[in-house]
Amino acid sequence: MISADRFSLNQATVRPLSVAEAASLCVRHDIPAIGLWREQVAEYGLAHSAETVRAAGLHVSSLCRGGFFTHQDARTRAAAHDDNRAAVREAAALGADTLILVSGGLIPGSKDLGLARRMIADAIGELVPVAQAEGVTLGIEPLHPMFCADRCAISRLGEAVDLALQFPADAVGVVVDTYHVWWDSALADDLARAAGRIVSYQVCDWILPLPADVLLGRGHLGDGFIDFRAITKLVLAAGYEGYTEVEIMNAEIWAAPPDETATEAKHRFAQLLG
User: Fold this and answer.
1) What is the DSSP letter of 4?
2) Cα distance between residue 237 and residue 5, in whole Å
């Protein structure tokens, strides 16, 4: 289904590593692409990070993240807009396929989901001309409903598709992360509607029991409950031809030797998606 040359290792899977260390890991394991995170890029330096991944021959499949648009006061909203403009420029400098947007949860002090979602749409609209000028594609990522209050008021892929369709296809698309969308009974229909708009495909498994920090409740492919073959067939049928990122946030995996993690991730990828 997906060949090894479409494999990408998201930096979150080996979070303790710097950009240079993660790039070296990818080279040692013949991994052709990497998904980067802004925090690690900032620590290493933007220019140095771009130079390092290019010297390693790596493609940057994504930069995470922009977003968090839902703020109560105008000053904080303006600061968030400035940060997102900076994120777009960083994605352009790195040659990333997409800047992933985690849109933000409820506005502090409010329980109005409709208002939060309108604010997200307005903020993306303001960011689109910046992205177009820099040649960057914005990827709206829906997050599982358990993150709706604090991280992302866009919970279903269908909502992300509806939002993306308000903007030019070369500027805004959607991110399909199996961890966040696998449960949705409308997923097949929404993936079909997303044809031509999927700008990133991320995979990891849903495992139980969930840890206290549910953000870290992700596992290697095959360790949990997600039917990767079924979802992947639908993603490919929707025309997606980009890289598939293995993005696992899990404290035990972070504590494991990175080479062991990379080996296991490649093995599971080939076994379940190859």
Assistant:
1) G
2) 19
Reported as a single tens digit per residue, the pLDDT across 190-241 is 999 999 999 999 999 999 999 999 999 999 999 999 999 999 999 999 999 9
Cβ–Cβ under 8 Å, residues 249 and 15: yes
| Per-residue model confidence as pLDDT tens digits over 247-257 | 999 999 999 99
- Beta-strand runs (E) in the chain: 7-10, 33-37, 59-67, 99-102, 138-140, 172-177, 198-203, 205-206, 218-219, 244-246
Q: What value, to the nearest 5°, has the Cα angle with vertex 155 and ends 82 and 157? A: 100
Q: Which residues contact 51 (CB under 8 A, 6 or more apart)?
A: none
CATH of the domain at 122: 3.20.20.150
Which residues span the domain enclosing 67? Answer: 4-273
| pLDDT above 90: residue 93 | yes
Provide the domain count of the chain. Answer: 1
